[in-house]
Amino acid sequence: MYTLPFRRFIWFILLCLSASTLQAQEVQAPIVYDGYRGGFDIGSQGVKLSIIGFYHREGKLKYKLVYDRQETVGLVKGMELNNGKLRAADIQDAVATVQEMLKDASETYGMAPRDFIIYTSSGVNLATNVADVDALTQKVLGIPTTTNMPTKVEATYSVRAGLAREDFDKAILIDVGGGNLKGGILQPYISASGSTRYTFKAYTIEHGARRVSERVLLRQNDPVKYQSELRTMVEDSIAPLIRMSLNDNPEIKTVNRSIVYLTGGAAYQFVTWRFPEKVQDEIVEFTMNDFNQFIDMLSSPTGWLDWQSRTFTKVEDPKLRELMERDHAKATKKVYNREGCLAGTLLAQQVFREIGNLNTKMFYFTRDAYWINALVFDTYKGEFKK
């Protein structure tokens, strides 16, 4: 017969085994992708590519961003200098960039041209000759480019991608693009069947980071005077437009909307400057003090140059250091220049002010509020549903 201490020992071992089994069950199995699809956004500050992996989890079709790349092409700069028309050389440069990125991604992920969609962003769609982009991609790549997506639809996809989490009913999205400023909320309503559903309430301002900066630079390229004119334009001319657009959606400005998600090129540059070590985090929390420090850095005579020359030699993890160096290079060389970045941050700051109640809000940068990701999923999900 077993003694009491021995029986207790056996029970202890069984409990440990049970706990280990439960922990193993709680660990998510690795993702096995059913296939990949891609989307190009020919936008105000360049060409961006997203590759989405489709997979199933608990019987539901899901997606994950597995690769993204961005290359600078000055389409909007050409518009400002060419009476609202895209320059032919810039269109050719953009399509050549898409062609090179398409070839690289296709070879890596085993994809065909039919597995990609191409869209021009709402900021580029303002050009009177935007259809020339479609004509050239069809000629060179055999892929059409959609050039007529409304700004509100683009903003809706941004919200779907960025607020697809449990707190979306308390959240506001602010998307500072190169060609326009947009965002909104998901607002609940009771359907005819009695269930709670959500509708998108958007705001849109046709003034983005690159468009605003280029307009000011046409009049004033002295660094000090540029800042002064930029602030005057944002606070005196653009702020009333933001205010009117937000007033059309009163729910955006209520105290209950306690979470602000910020996205867009300038927001990405800010987070890369302030939290370079968080390069792998999809959601990064920040404070208004963090954001104001970034504006102060951009406004200082040597701030941008100091940031460009930053090194990460003290980071011990070689993989993390590589990711940080790559992120830093992208943020300082492939998104906005100093003038465009300052314009984008001042636009975001003005939206913060117009929303109000900032002391009651939490602020986050979201990497995944990228509208083309959700659009790729919608376009190809029928091919992967079981």
Automatic annotation (TrEMBL):
Keywords for this protein: Signal
Signal peptide: 1-24
Name of the protein: Ppx/GppA phosphatase domain-containing protein
